[in-house]
Amino acid sequence: MKTVITCKGNNQKAHFDLRFGRAGWFCLIDDESGDPTFIENDQVEVTGGAGVKTAEKMVELGVQKVISGHFGPKAKDLLDKFNIQMVMIDDDDQSISKIIARLNK
Amino acid sequence: MPRRKRLRKVVAPPGFKGYRPYGNAQHKKQFVELLYEEYEAIKLADYDLLNHLEASKLMGVSRPTFARIYESARRKLAHALVETREIRSVFGNAQLDGTWYLCGDCHARFTIPVQMTDHVCPICRSLEIEIIKTK
């Protein structure tokens, strides 16, 4: 199963990003290989449609679970349609490694 | 002009296309159309054992409207049983709703897609989850 966590930087010490469409980076975790990979978000600076574009990207990546702080209505609809689980958490001062540790507990 | 019909929220569509009676002598082609919202009303009231007020809030309609949907559902089912009619599920005035859940332990909010069978919190695997309405 593939999981994506939105984050502010490209390493495990980076903090969690509350935004979905305009998050700096995506941390992709594949349950089979185990190692997290980081993907840069090219939608950070666009003026509109970032959420939808990002949701489309999640579908392309074949992700089953997305962890972020907030999802916009359009992104929500799209992720719902492709049966991707959305998880919203509020702690933005946590590092990615801590969240991964919570997931694997 | 009549007042417009509000869409009723349905968490999950019924897992069947219909039910057909068997063992009856003559084969009748008549059928009863059970709407998605009627299936949902039966499910909320008689399977999840909610009271009508709670159930009506989940479906986004008033309590009296919920009672009307529920009554119509019961009458259709009784009609189908007594007159050995086939039951077909029909979309009706439904709006499929992605329901959000709240974890009681870590306060994460999340959705559970249809194909997922285990109802646990994705972060801490807690079973203490409850339904919230954000949409």
Summarize this structure as a short list of keywords or feature phrases.
heterodimer; A: 105 residues; alpha/beta; Nucleotidyltransferase, domain 5; five-stranded mixed beta sheet; 3 helices; 5 strands; B: 135 residues; 2 domains; three-stranded mixed beta sheet; three-stranded antiparallel beta sheet; 30% helix; 21% strand
Order of helices and strands of chain B: EEEHHHEEEEE
CATH domain class name of chain A: Alpha Beta
So, CATH architecture of chain A?
2-Layer Sandwich
What is the terminal-to-terminal distance of chain B? Answer: 28 Å
Which consecutive residue ranges of chain B, at least 5 long each, have pLDDT under 50?
Answer: none
Count of discrete structural domains of chain B: 2
Task: Let me know the number of strands of chain A.
Answer: 5
User: Measured on Cα atoms, how large is the radius of gyration of chain B?
Assistant: 17 Å
